[in-house]
Amino acid sequence: MKLRQLHGSSLALAITLALIVKALILFGLWKAFFSAPQTKHMRMPTATVEQHLLAPHPPPESKK
Asked: Which residues cross the membrane (predicted)?
């Protein structure tokens, strides 16, 4: 019975640590990429967004 209790608590500890590590990674990614918007209040000029999203891309160069 003691062995099963120890195994259960070590499993719970491992799961808890994994969840804490995942939460820290997600927080780090959010802080690095999403916490500082390009403009205040996320308002960007429509023309700038259209130009960035709808601009034709040059065809990739083929190597011979």
From this structure: 12-34
